[in-house]
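Fold sample X.
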Amino acid sequence: MKPEEIRDFFAKDRFAAMTGIEILEVSEGYAKTRLVVEDRHLNANNVVMGGCVYTLADFTFALAANCGELRSMTLSSNIVFNSPANGSVLYAETEVIKNGRKICNFLVHITDEKERTVATVNVMGFRN
């Protein structure tokens, strides 16, 4: 898909839309997204729920990995939570490690508005 088509396609991602994730930039092998933190994103410790942070990373990977000729889905991923997500805005940005025909590998960096690393997610994708 082309960058202008990817936005329309992923507008149908109901879970990401319900979460409130915004697409800031997208191109083949790259994406940047933002999540304005609301009360609904917080866990009992008053920080952003880990699953919400992971959803932001997975959606950002999907944008970057599916912008181009090949379709991708998450095959495996590993998340490291580096610091509590207690800011008011979270950003996710991809870095492509391998962009192969059958397997792709992306590193997604999650930061807050103070540019503090909240999490890093290594995502392996399968292409069909």
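Fold sample Y, listed below.
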Amino acid sequence: MHRKIISWGLSFAALSVLLGAFGAHALKAIVSTDQLQIFETGVRYQFMHAMALITLSIYSNRQDLSIREQKGLGWAAHFFIVGTLFFSGSLYLLTLLPASYHPLIRFIGPITPLGGLCFMLGWLSWGRVVYLNKVDK
């Protein structure tokens, strides 16, 4: 499990650096300052949760974790991945689609809070595993 988690984390981290550079150089010329800040928020949260996935992968490699705790860490990883795709992905689309006046823009906005909810559920899932591991031992 930890190999897949770290692969997602590393991929998200590399992509966030690429998107950050794109935002700082190419995107700055075609969107407003407010839209650029929205894009940068997506990059920041993507990078934070990429680091969280990498750390979660290292934590999930522990030998003293029960099957139930490993499943909880799997849930946390899935929540972080879906949260990143929904939260950051929707912010990227909200930034780029207005530049083209795309009709799907009104359907993308409600996806962002779902991504934020997934982030919270991921942190809570991981916290539950840590708490249960401490209580059980």
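Sample Y note: The mean pLDDT is 91.
Also: The chain is about 85% helix and 0% strand.
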